[in-house]
Amino acid sequence: MSESEKQRQVPSYAVLDEEAAQGYARLTREGVYNLLPSELFWQARQPYLLKHGYQLRPRYSPNWEPSWKGTNLDPTYCEDSIVLITFQVIDAKRLKDNKLVAIKKFRNDSQEARIAQFFSSITDPQNHCVPVHEILSDPFDPQLSLMVMPYLRPCRDPDFATIGDVIDFVNQTLEGLVFMHRHKVAHRDIAVENIMMDAAPLYPGGHHPVRRQYTPDGLYEVTPLPRRDRSVTYLYIDFGLSSWFSGDASPYVVGRVGRDKQAPELSSTVPYNAYKLDIFTLGNLYSQEFEQIYNSMQFLVPLVDNMRRSPPESRPTAAQLLAQWEEIKADLKESLFRWRLSPKAEAAVERVLNDTVAFAREGIYHLRKFVR
After folding, report:
1. Average pLDDT estimate for 134-163
2. What is the rounded distance in angstroms from the CA atom of residue 319 to the CA atom of residue 185?
3. Predicted pLDDT of residue 359
4. Which one of 23, 37, 110, 283 is at 20 to 30 Å from 345 when CA atoms are compared?
5. Contacts of 56 (CB under 8 A, 6+ apart)
6. Three-class SS of residue 328?
7. Are 219 and 77 in contact (CB under 8 A)?
8. pLDDT tens, position by position, 255-274
9. Handedness of CA 288, 292, 297, 298 (dihedral sign)
10. What DSSP line would sit under 159-178, residue for residue?
11. CB 275 within 8 A of CB 145
């Protein structure tokens, strides 16, 4: 394809005037868009991954040259200018089905892969742990391996929109906690960053794996479908700090580890129950992400209060909390599930307007059910 043909196929905002193009050309020559040292790790492994059926983006090809060189294209809108954000993990396309995957490098002396593979081997509707497709030996470093998993989005990107979204999230994450504890694993780093989602149903046309608000080519903004009435799966990731207790081993551990440092029992010297820590941190997540931010979250309060009890021994088990949650859910009206999330910080005028729109949508929903 000629350079002029390339430029005709992109939106006008991605084409620079001559002066701006010269400026970007100078920056390109100066190395502003060169691969970062951490990206060179993945570029070196591109042929090996391709041999195993995983294609990295063009940026990581061994002889990569910026696609905008010699053109008037704005590098911002050229897909191969997009840099990795998390250097431990890279996105790739699985060639046999064109699905996005995530490939994570890890040390072989870590138990993360062992736990993840164990969970991945279990078929259970309560299993909400990230599956592992395969593990590859690193071609250069015998102390490293490469774990291939499904590509996932952060659980709050896009934002939760309805109360039903929150209810579904609590359902799945509580089930996942019951599953992990039943198999004698304490996560020990439950935080919003370590719960991801398979959001493919929200983006039927796909999206860019790094610049997630854009189409796969990085050119156009993409709008997600609502989570309501679509099957979104939430998954726990990152078992690097997890503890796997064999047999009747004590669940008491030490260490001020994990992202959430608010649990009162955390200590580097005094042992605490790792299962009870998981319960606190998940309850704290519900509080910080939902109860403290949105209106109409009163139904969460009894659950969250139980999960954040002190002393830790007074907290129910994960299975008991799931049973409590099922009772809470049974008392909720169906219409509540479709009601929009109303931020506590929302201005009164804005709230009235948004509630009016939500009320109209609810009326349309019931009308459609009647017509059917």
Report:
1. 97
2. 14
3. 44
4. 283
5. 42, 43, 46, 49, 50, 90, 91, 92
6. helix
7. yes
8. 999 999 999 999 999 999 99
9. positive
10. PP-BHHHHHHHHHHHHHHHH
11. no
Length of the chain: 372
pTM, two decimals, is 0.91
* Bond preceding residue 311 cis, omega within 30 of 0: yes
Q: What is the arithmetic mean of pLDDT over 88-95? A: 98
Locate tokens 């990731």: which residue? 237
How confident is the model over 334-360, as pLDDT tens digits? Answer: 999 999 999 998 765 455 555 544 544
The predicted pLDDT at position 345 comes to 85
Mean pLDDT of 232-236: 98
| Mean pLDDT of the region 303-310 | 98
- 8 A C-beta contact, residue 188 and residue 257: yes
Which among 182, 296, 287, 175 is positioned nearest to 233, based on CA atoms?
175
pLDDT tens, position by position, 32-70:
999 999 999 999 999 999 999 999 999 999 999 999 999
Quickly tell me which residue has 């009308």 as its tokens: 367
Q: Which residues pair with 135 in a beta bridge?
A: 147
CA distance 372 to 361: 17
CA–CA–CA angle 332, 337, 339 (5° rounding): 120
DSSP 250-263: --EE----SS----
Query: How distant, in Å, are the alpha carbons of 105, 197, 210, 238, 328 from that of 193?
Result: 18, 11, 16, 9, 26
Return contacts of 57-62, CB within 8 angstroms, 24+ apart: 57/82, 57/91, 57/92, 59/35, 60/35, 60/90
Percent of the chain with pLDDT over 70: 91
Give how far the C-alpha of residue 305 lies from the chain's centroid of Cα atoms, to the nearest Å.
26
**Cis bond upstream, residue 75 (ω within 30):** no
Q: Which residue has the tokens 């991945």?
A: 120
Torsions phi, psi for 284 (to 5 deg): -65, -35
